[in-house]
Amino acid sequence: MEIRDAVAVVTGGASGIGRATVRELAGRGAQVVVADIHEDRLEEVRVEIEESGGRVLTVRCDVAYDDQVEHLRHEALEEMGRVDIVMNNAGVVAMGPPERMTMEEWDWILQVNVYGVIRGVRAFLPHMLERGSGHIVNTASLAGLFAYAWDSVPYITGKFAVAGFTEALALYARPLGVGVTLVCPGLVDTNLGETARFVGVDDPSTWIKEIQLPAAVAPEEVATRVVDAVAEDRFLVTTAEDHVKERVTQRAADHDRFVADMIGRLPTPPNLHRP
Ligand SMILES: NC(=O)c1ccc[n+]([C@@H]2O[C@H](COP(=O)([O-])OP(=O)(O)OC[C@H]3O[C@@H](n4cnc5c(N)ncnc54)[C@H](O)[C@@H]3O)[C@@H](O)[C@H]2O)c1
After folding, report:
1. Chain CA centroid to CA 118, Å
2. Cβ count within 10 A of residue 221
3. What is the pLDDT of residue 208?
4. Distance (Å) from CA 16 to ligand 1 centroid
5. Is 138 in the pocket of ligand 1 (CB under 6 A)?
6. Ligand 1, residues 36, 41, 87, 192: which to mutate, most atoms within 8 A of Cβ?
7. Is 211's pLDDT higher than 70?
8. Residue 207, pLDDT score
9. If you measure from the C-alpha of residue 91 to the centroid of ligand 1, how many angstroms do you get, rounded to a whole number?
10. Does 155 participate in catalysis according to the annotation?
């Protein structure tokens, strides 16, 4: 994929990994369509890209709603004429004991983190298949490759879904000319904590435990890897490669042992149902 002059849509593009990827794409000459619900930050991105001489369209779009993603597709095609790259990246975190999570909270996180990605693919894949070219990037997480903690069961659930969806999508879309990339970073220094929800615990600090992951990297590091992967048509983007490789290899070799070892590594969760 030639990045120069490509038209790229990025959801959750006003902050963190999305915003860094928008900058990286624009820096390499792509035209960018930035979608987000955070209107102030969307405006900041618009000004920044325009001031650096890039072409940018911003669209307020909540990926939890069919009609808003449809609107994004319509606006992008109307304004830019075509879409070459779509990065389904918008995401949120919900933490808390899984049995205390209400169905509304489950629905909130899965509507954004899973159905948001599916909506993005449904909206743009037909256009790419018609042209026999394009590239879809879905942001999952290291949380989509293995369960690393007990404090974020809903997040891990959604990210596993995105990883499976994206791997299967690659089998379908790549032979038809559309590239697919799965983004599975470890910790990244972003604003993700701002929108995190804690459910079923009075004091979140009693709930989040040491998660035993390598230190956070800058979003720019992820962005460079993502755009390189699109340019070179590669599937997986990670950070903390050694850590991921070790865990994933161990999990594939002996899944029972992997689960037992992870339990051994983590502190014991509080039992909230015992007086
Ligand atoms: N930060 C990390 O450690 C980390 C690690 C692995 C994966 N991720 C994933 O990376 C992606 C980007 O997160 P980030 O860390 O850059 O966080 P971030 O909060 O800095 O950026 C996420 C952006 O998504 C937007 N957003 C949230 N809900 C939305 C919705 N319903 N519709 C449209 N936009 C919405 C937010 O307004 C925000 O601008 C997420 O999918 C996240 O799960 C993050």
Report:
1. 12
2. 16
3. 76
4. 7
5. no
6. 192
7. no
8. 82
9. 4
10. yes
Find tokens 């597709």 and name the residue.
73
Which helix or strand (DSSP H or E) is residue 227 part of? helix 219-232
Asked whether the predicted pLDDT for residue 169 surpasses 90, the reply is yes
Nearest-angstrom CA–CA distance, 230 and 9: 13
56-103 pLDDT per residue, tens: 999 999 999 999 999 999 999 999 999 999 999 999 999 999 999 999
Quick check: CB of 187 below 6 Å from ligand 1? Answer: yes
Residue 31 burial class via C-beta count within 10 angstroms: exposed 0-12, middle 13-18, buried 19 and up: buried
128 — alpha (psi -120 to 50), left (phi > 0) or beta?
alpha
User: Which tokens go with 219?
Assistant: 């979003």
Look at 109-113, 153-157, 174-178, 262-266 and tell me which has the smallest mean pLDDT.
262-266
Assigned token pair, 16: 């963190």
Question: Given this model, what pLDDT does residue 203 score?
Answer: 85
Q: Which of 65, 148, 155, 172 is catalytic?
A: 155
Residue 64 near ligand 1, beta carbon < 6 Å: yes
The set of residues, in sequence order, having a beta carbon less than 8 Å from that of 37 and lying 6+ positions away, is: 60, 61, 62, 90
Residue-range domain boundaries for the chain? 7-265
3-state secondary structure 39-107: HHHHHHHHHHHHHCCCCEEEEECCCCCHHHHHHHHHHHHHHHCCCCEEEECCCCCEECCCCCCCHHHHH
Among the atoms of ligand 1, which is closest to the Cα of residue 68?
Answer: 32
Q: Which CATH class is domain 7-265?
A: alpha beta
Ligand 1 pocket check for 239: Cβ under 6 Å: no
CB contact at 8 A, 167 and 111: no
Rounded mean pLDDT of the chain?
A: 96
